[in-house]
Amino acid sequence: MTNENPNGSPLDEEIIDPPADEVPSPEVEALIAERDEYRDRFMRALADAENARKRAEKDRRDAEQYGGSRLARDLLPVHDALTRALEAASEDQRAAAALIEGVELTLRELNNVFAKHGIKVITPAPGEKFDPQQHEAMFEAPVPGTVAGSIIQVMDNGFMLHDRLLRPAKVGVSSTPAS
């Protein structure tokens, strides 16, 4: 009879011990002990190999999903610059529609590429609660009419790559309003 591991390869033949009423010689006892030691070492090596396979598979998945983190981080300032360019355009400048339209199309395309690769923009709004997992407080100021710990100004958007933070959103936070 052959025992098999989950991968289907034989572990070893059925182990046959001498009958219980027969006293084995010291040589047989030594061979049984050696056999048991080798079997134990084999089973440990098999478990180590399985653990290494699982670790390698996880590393491969992580590399596939998060391998572009550096490139993504390098593209974030491009997104910021395009966003600021659109925000800075006055109504008079918007009359030069071709330039503004070009910047809008470029930013839209960059957002499409981000979405295709699992990059999400974190866009907090004033009044939202500060979340240290997604936001970085750049300053804190007492602002009447606000709740302590709420966002009062957004300097830069944040970005997530799948479930990992690439860059926190840079925000100003309200402290306890001065009395």
From TrEMBL:
Listed GO CC annotations: cytoplasm
Q: Where in the cell is it found?
A: Cytoplasm
Residues annotated as coiled-coil are 35-66
Q: Which Pfam families would you find in this protein's record? A: GrpE (PF01025)
Read off the InterPro entries from this record.
GrpE, GrpE_CC, GrpE_head
**A GO BP entry:** protein folding
Per UniProt, the keywords (alphabetical) are: Chaperone, Coiled coil, Cytoplasm, Stress response
Principal localisation: cytoplasm
Keyword Secreted in annotation: no
Region of interest (Disordered), residue spans = 1-25
What PROSITE patterns would the database entry show? GRPE (PS01071)
State a single Gene Ontology molecular function. protein homodimerization activity
Task: Please list the residue ranges that the record marks as compositionally biased, kind Acidic residues.
Answer: 11-20
Oligomer status and interactors: Homodimer.
Function of the protein: Participates actively in the response to hyperosmotic and heat shock by preventing the aggregation of stress-denatured proteins, in association with DnaK and GrpE. It is the nucleotide exchange factor for DnaK and may function as a thermosensor. Unfolded proteins bind initially to DnaJ; upon interaction with the DnaJ-bound protein, DnaK hydrolyzes its bound ATP, resulting in the formation of a stable complex. GrpE releases ADP from DnaK; ATP binding to DnaK triggers the release of the substrate protein, thus completing the reaction cycle.
The entry assigns this protein to a family as follows: Belongs to the GrpE family.
Q: Which HAMAP family match?
A: GrpE (MF_01151)
- Its protein name is Protein GrpE
Q: What is the lineage of its organism?
A: Bacteria, Pseudomonadati, Pseudomonadota, Alphaproteobacteria, Rhodobacterales
